[in-house]
Design a protein that fits this description.
14 helices, alpha/beta, 486 residues, Aspartate Aminotransferase, domain 2, globular, Aspartate Aminotransferase, domain 1, five-stranded mixed β-sheet, 12 strands, seven-stranded mixed β-sheet
């Protein structure tokens, strides 16, 4: 048998090689960071795809240095950097250093969190963090939960547990009630559960983009009149576009009255659990049956780090399956796979643990307050700007607006095309990044502010770029659209 070069395998005998390689990688990353001058370079999808397609994966490079240089050319040179203050696109946060330190151990030790004999102390670190989160929510000693890959998986599991209460009820009789501005994973979860798109009832929202309890009550009553079963009500604590927090207490009253499972999607707003000043905005969350929390949003953790937390651990049963080789019914050692939709699972909980043990929850909460305050101050300063039409005052840390050029008012088709062109031009320039969305069918730009280091001046600079770019594009845009309409 030929001798294999085994120094690539992590092992105490190869510690020097491991340390040298990590050191080389860290040096490379720090050099890369020093050269970052904006959130992106504006590389096109075509160019990015072509570079990757040209790589021959069957011919390895000579050493780690060459691999790092290639990774820079394929990815890092044009990566999107969330720590840049002019990045204001999606719900992506800069990450805290203690969590990055944790990633070193998570990847190197490679514990799997499904059973105790693959994780040992990691099992109890995760359990302790779930208990800590449950206590922050306001749940009692019977609460439980598990870490997940993200909010979509957490929402899926919450609805799976709700479905488990209705074993034997035909799928076509079950309904999930969620606001018109709830996350799309609610609809996807309904499909995955075999319930179909028609099972999700869209409940209208109020002027602040929150679920309207009166509309919810009408929908629940209509379901009952039709002989349909309200399987679950999904309330949102932090909608993706507006950060709106549904009136949780009134929704909880209605869920109880109609015997519906209450799931609260707090993927975005969950950081308020540690806010020193705004925890009361989540009043009523303690009445939920299940809650989604994304630590990789407003707890400033690296992806992935999310959780599903339930008020009563007995309700986790629908996620349990016993395998003789892994978690047989007679097993005495603890395991986490009984609670999870995943089997093999990273020790992502370590990132939050090391963050809390280094920084403490109050400091994380002050970071949350900082981005909420930032959005409010920027809106206050610019809400009367004639070229920026805000769709609403911010509830958390998002700003939704349109650029409105001087001159005759634009039709929606013209406004949509212009605002989309502004967003694309900003990305191509590498100077700033914003997102796009629709409000009642009308195209808008969206700034998502999750950087506690960003200042009002930083965000004002992004808005200045929106105005400048819009002013530059608007005249030619009007002409081209007018010519196309002839």
């Amino acid at each position: 048998m030929p001798q294999l070069p085994l120094h690539h395998v992590f092992h105490p005998a190869h510690a020097d090689h491991y340390a040298a390689t990590l050191g080389e990688g860290l040096d490379h990353l720090l050099r890369q960071l020093k050269g970052v001058g904006g959130p992106a370079t504006g590389l096109s999808p075509t160019a990015a795809e072509r570079r990757v397609a040209e790589v021959d994966l069957d011919r390895p490079l000579a050493d780690a240095g060459q691999v790092l240089e290639e990774i820079s050319r394929l990815w890092l040179d044009d990566a999107v950097w969330f720590h840049e203050p002019s990045y204001a696109a999606h719900l992506n946060c800069p990450v805290v250093v203690p969590a990055l330190l944790a990633e070193l151990f998570v990847a190197s030790v490679n514990s799997s969190l499904d059973t105790f004999d693959q994780s040992v102390g990691a099992t109890f670190i995760e359990r302790r963090l779930i208990a800590w989160t449950a206590a922050r929510i306001g749940f009692g000693a019977e609460a439980d939960g598990v870490f997940t890959s993200g909010g979509s998986q957490s929402n899926l599991q919450g609805l799976l547990l709700a479905r488990g209460r209705h074993a034997g009820v035909p799928a076509e009789r079950l309904r999930i009630l969620a606001s018109a501005e709830s996350h799309f994973s609610v609809q996807k979860s309904a499909r995955l559960l075999g319930l179909g798109d028609e099972s999700v009832v869209s409940v209208s929202t109020d002027a602040r983009h929150r679920m309207d309890p009166a509309a919810l009550e009408r929908s629940l009553a209509a379901c009952a009149d039709l002989g349909l079963r309200p399987m679950a009500v999904v309330a949102t604590a932090g909608t993706t576009d507006f950060g709106a927090i549904d009136p949780l207490e009134r929704i909880a009253d209605l869920a109880v009255a109609y015997d519906a499972w209450l799931h609260v999607d707090a993927a975005y707003g969950g950081g308020l659990l540690v806010s020193p000043t705004r925890r009361d905005r989540l009043r009523g969350i303690e009445r939920a049956d299940s809650v989604t929390i994304d630590f990789h949003k407003t707890f400033f953790q690296p992806v992935s780090s999310s959780a599903i937390v339930v008020r009563d651990r007995a309700t986790l049963g629908p996620a349990t399956w016993h395998a003789d080789y892994l978690n047989p019914r007679e097993a005495t050692n603890p395991n986490q796979v009984d609670k999870s939709l995943q089997t093999t699972r990273r020790f992502d909980a370590l990132k939050l643990w090391m963050t809390l043990r280094t920084m403490g929850p109050d400091l994380v909460g002050r970071y949350v307050d900082a981005v909420v305050d930032l959005a409010a101050e920027v809106h206050h300063r610019h809400r009367d700007d004639p070229e920026l039409a805000f769709a609403a005052a911010p509830e958390l840390s998002t700003l939704v607006l349109r650029y409105v050029p001087a001159g005759p008012p634009l039709e929606e088709r013209e406004s949509a095309a212009l605002n989309n062109a502004i967003r694309e031009a900003l990305y191509a320039s590498g100077r700033a990044m914003v997102a796009a969305t629709k409000v009642d069918g009308v195209h808008h730009l969206k700034l998502t502010l999750l950087n506690p280091m960003a200042t009002v001046e930083d965000v004002t600079g992004v808005l200045d770029l929106v105005r400048e770019t819009g002013g530059r594009l608007a005249p030619a845009h009007r002409r081209s659209l007018a010519e196309a309409a002839r």
